[in-house]
Amino acid sequence: MGLFDIFKKKTTAERNIIKLRKLRLNTIIHESKSLMHSMILASPHDNSFLDENPDGEGLFGLVKSNPVPIYGIDNIPAYMDRLRYKFTSKSGSGSFTFNTVDYQRTTDSDITEIGSQKPTEGSVASSVSSPNIKGHIDVYNLYSVGGQKLAKIYINSYSLKTSNKIPEGFIHRDETPAEKDTKVLIELMK
Q1: pTM of the predicted model, to two decimals?
Q2: What residue spans define the domains of the chain?
């Protein structure tokens, strides 16, 4: 970029992308100091400040022996806001977007199939444990915008840091173009 490039007039497409990126920044759910902070410190917890628990074993987030570290249950929405899945249009055009996930707490014994519909009523939920992880582990089903189950993930809310790592099969919000992020596009239409 040369000195005079800063005076170049931006195209409409460039201005729109800049607008969508700003809109994304305004719609991000940010992590905050957890209301559980004192309780986390007083309990067995992950104090590694890493994106993945160093004692974790297995597929990140998809097994209870390697849950997603999150700084208190009140920061679960901030973590879930980072998750996207790729949706390809069924029209045959090949167009795609990156959609947000919906989530619902469940139990480790939940054996509903991937692709099954989200229950209309709240389900029973309970925590589990794993001998290699400090603190309780909560279980969540992730659903598409249309309510189809995408995955079951495990979360350890007894960590001093919320992970920036994403389970296999999902895409981090920050790695998607703002013009293909449905959360941003929906906000633009408001």
Answers
A1: 0.89
A2: 9-189
pLDDT in tens, the chain (190 residues): 555 556 667 788 788 888 888 988 889 999 999 999 999 999 999 999 999 999 999 999 999 999 999 999 999 999 999 999 999 888 778 889 999 999 999 999 999 999 999 998 877 788 999 999 999 999 999 999 999 999 999 999 999 999 999 999 999 999 999 999 999 988 888 7
What is the residue-wise DSSP string for the chain? --GGGGGSPPPHHHHHHHHHHHHHHHHPPPP---TTHHHHHHSS-B-S-SSS-TT--SSTTTSTTSPEE-BSGGGHHHHHTTEEEEEE-TTSS--EEEEE-EEEEE-TT--PPTTPBPPSSPPP---B--TTSSS-BEEEEEE-TTSBEEEEEEEE-BBSS------TT-EEGGGS-GGGBHHHHHHHH-
